[in-house]
Amino acid sequence: MVRDVLDEKAIAKLIGGMGVGHVRYPTAGGSDHAEAQPFYVNSPYGIVFAHNGNLIDSPSLLQYMDATAHRHINTSSDSELLLNLFADNLQKTGKFRINEDDIFTAIGGLMRQCTGAYACVAMLAGFGIIAFRDPNGIRPVGMASRKTNTGKDYLFASESIVADALGFSEWEDVKPGEAVIITRSGVSRKRVAAHAAFTPDIFEYVYFARPDSVLDGISVYRSRMAMGDALAVEVERVLKERGITVDVVIPVPDTSRVAALNLAQKLNLPYREGFVKNRYVGRTFIMPGQQMRRKNVRRKLNAMALEFSGKNVLLVDDSIVRGTTSEEIIQMAKDVGAKMVIVASCAPPIRHSNVYGIDMPSRAELVAYGRNTEEIAEAIGADLVVFQTLPDLIASVRQFNPSISTFDCSVFTGEYVTGGVNEEYLHRLESLRADNVKNKVLVNSREGQSENSRVNGIHTRVNMVASGGSVNGADDTVGLHNTWNIS
Predict the structure, then answer these.
(1) Has residue 292 got a pLDDT over 80?
(2) Measuring CA to CA, which residue among 24, 46, 42 is closest to residue 33?
(3) Which residue has the higher pLDDT, 9 or 6?
(4) Contact between residue 121 and residue 129 where contact means Cβ atoms under 8 Å apart
(5) Of 97, 143, 376, 449, which has the fewest beta carbons less than 10 angstroms from its beta carbon?
(6) How far apart are CA 347 and CA 224, in angstroms?
(7) Rounded distance, CA 183 to CA 354, Å?
(8) Residue 396 CA to chain centroid, in angstroms?
């Protein structure tokens, strides 16, 4: 946990007016400390780099790094690969000192070279901080500022809630294909990539983002309210067809609460909190391995019998991915006396791999893959499952920013906006990113062994702060401090 690592004692030892922070869970490859971000290269100019997303053309880029750029990649992370692409493009300037135009040119070159989803932040020693976003804007990143006695502080983050919590304002999303450079002298922005369809990942609104965040001008909270309203219409239609009545609506904590409440209000049904959450267990979705996820569901939630016993219960969840959590929760509801358990999902069935940095890689792991709605219900032990339709999901989000014409919905449709994703690629990705491979890498890293396969892909949240004044008594020099020995 960030709060356990970066406590007051650790923060007090940090020197300088700039910093890069990163929170990672592995969607592929190893969990070894060597793959923890941010990454750093000392040539050229000293670059610290953090990345949220996933490249889909890593093999060809690795070949380029080896044969042409002559740069060695130490880990299986495509984030290190992306850093070295950036460094290689900067080195092509051949300059002793670079300027903003050189950096914009380097980032533009990087965007022409690589394919995939990436929201990146970087720190250039003695120069400033940088953020850029892939041409389709699949992964989120934005910036904010706050006034100080000595000028302005600036921040880059994946979600606006980071800015709110730290007293920053004037949040603005980095646009698709745009790069932003912040130095002591000011802020420079430039679109460095050719125009492409703007397709932010809709799953950010369904699950990943905090409800109090605003991404690309869309309130996550409002979009989830709209998802609940739309899902209520579909649930009402299906229940009427089946002749089923529901006694109570219960959300699966925490993400689905907003949608569940709106659904209950629209259907004039009682809304109850039937599950009590253990705050000391993390999200089971991001745990590496089915066995670990299953084991932690009952540690994470406790069902209150008085809300379930003898009732037809409608459980509302944000989505059904592997089905591990859903199956355990449904069984918990039945164990405490639920007469019938109906599950309503705010998202359509997830039947396809995510190649843009979310941990749902293997189609074989997805409970909806190769199954219809009835078979999904049987697999997770539900009496009935109702899914949101894709048009309703898109409309629920898009209504708050009509300028976004479409979203990345590849996990529902199998259509990948960046191109370059074929069956061969998916098979290779699945063989590298399946749970058994990931667990093998984890075991190998503990035993001091190495994993030879290079695997692309991590999902992250990235934060970066630049201060207009000195931090912890540091002088006015903007530089990179390399002695991070915290005892």
Answers:
(1) no
(2) 24
(3) 9
(4) yes
(5) 97
(6) 11
(7) 36
(8) 20
